[in-house]
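Example record

One chain of 116 residues, shown exactly as stored in the release files.
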Amino acid sequence: MRSVIYVLTALGVIGLAFWAYRENYATQAVLNQTDRLHSQIRDTHARLAVLRAEWAYLNRPDRIRELAEMNFERLQLLPLHPDQFGQVDEVQYPIPELLPITNPVDVSTMNSENDL
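Predicted structure tokens for this chain:
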């Protein structure tokens, strides 16, 4: 009877060792994948910073003004001035259409019935 318990205990220890071995390699694989993702995120942030710098460089007002002047015949763009902008209260919103009256009610007869 003791030998059966020793064999089962040994098999249990071997099984737990095999499980721990597999978990260790699975954890290492996930850690490597996480490191790769962090590296990709760092590269993407660096690329995004470069793109933002390029965008700021290309959107310089003096550069855009020169481009508008060079292509005036084709685009006919004029420079913007502060007096070209309007105020919010100057905007005319469309007047909403009135809903048609489909079921008219005679108010004078209703008041005379309520007085009774």
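Notes: The longest helix spans residues 2-58.
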